[in-house]
Amino acid sequence: MPDATTLILLSAAVFAGAFVSGLSGFAFSAVAGAILLRVFQPLEAVPLMMACSIGVQATNLWALRRNIRWEGSLLLIVGGLIGVPIAVSLLQTTDTHLLRRGFGIIVALYAAYMLLRPTLVTAGEAVGRHWVALIGFGGGLVGGLTAMPGAIPTIWCDMRGMPKSEQRGLVQPFIAAMQVFAIVLLVGHQDLSSKVFVDLAISLPALFAGSVLGVLAFHRVNETVFRKTVLVLLLVSGISLI
User: Fold this and answer.
1) Is 214's pLDDT higher than 80?
2) pLDDT single digits (tens) 134-144
3) What PANTHER family has UniProt attached to this entry (predicted)?
C-alpha cells in the first residue's frame, strides 16, 4: 500500500486529469502525468494512466451517449486502427524524439495562434468519408507516437468550427477506442505489475468524482469557453512534447 503522501498525490493527479478530460474530452495523461510520472516509475505510471483514462472515457461515453455520431466515429476508428500499429513499429525501429518535438511545436503554434484569433470560424461543409478516415489514421499514428490520439481529430474539428456537442460526439468514441487498443498492445508486450491494479483500485473514487464533475462543467460552459479550454489544453500538451 502507498504511504499517505503518495496516496494524496495519486488521488489529486487522477482527480485533476479526470476533471479536465470530462470537461474537454481528452488530456487526462497530460494533466495527471505531470504528477504521476514524478511519483511512480514509468512502467507503473503509464499503464495506470492508460487504465484510468479508459475509465474516464467510458464515463464520458455514457454521459454523452445521445450526442455520439457513430458513423463518423467509426470512420475515424478504422483509420486509427491502421495508424497505431505503424506507430508501434516506428517506436521499435526509429528514434522518434525529433518527430514528437516537431509535432509538439506544430500543436503548440496552432493552439497559440487560434487563441489569439478575434473571431470563431463557422462550421464547414460536409467532407468525404475517406478524409474522415485519413484524419483517424493521423490520430492513431500520432497517438501511438505521443500518447495524444485525440490531438489531430480535435484540431480538425476546431478548424471546421464544430459545436462542442458535435465535436465531443465525434471524437470521444475514437479516443476511447484508441486507448483500449493501445493498452491491449501494451499488455501484449509486457507483464503488468500487481501494484498497477492496487493503485487503480485506490484511485477509483477520485476518478469517478473528477469525471462526473468534468462532464457537469462541460454541459454548463458555453461554446466560447469550451473552445478556449480545448485550445489551452492543446497548447499545454504540445509544449509538453517539446
Assistant:
1) yes
2) 999 999 988 88
3) MEMBRANE TRANSPORTER PROTEIN, TRANSMEMBRANE PROTEIN YFCA
Q: Look at the block and give the residue holding cell 487503480.
A: 200
What own/partner pairs with CB < 8 Å and gap ≥ 24 does 66-70 have? 67/165, 67/166, 67/168, 67/169, 68/169, 68/172, 68/173, 69/166, 69/169, 69/170, 70/173
Do 26 and 175 meet the contact criterion of CB atoms below 8 Å apart? yes
Can you read off the three cell numbers belonging to residue 140? 492513431
The predicted-structure confidence for 19-33, as pLDDT tens digits, reads as follows: 999 999 888 888 888
Give residues with Cβ within 8 angstroms of 234, minimum separation 6: 107, 108, 110, 111, 151, 154, 155
Angle, nearest 10°, between helix axes 129-146 and 97-116? 120
- Give the distance, in angstroms, between the CA of residue 56 and the centroid of all CA atoms in the same chain: 10
Half-sphere exposure of 35 (CA within 13 A, CB side): 16
CA-CA-CA-CA dihedral for 128, 175, 88, 145, to nearest 10:
90
Q: What does the pLDDT read at residue 124? A: 55
What is the helix (H) or strand (E) element at residue 123, kind and residue range? none
What are the pLDDT digits (tens) for 13-67? 999 999 999 999 888 888 888 888 888 887 788 788 888 988 998 998 998 888 8
pLDDT higher than 60, residue 102: yes
CA distance 238 to 242: 7
Q: What pTM was estimated for this model as a whole?
A: 0.82
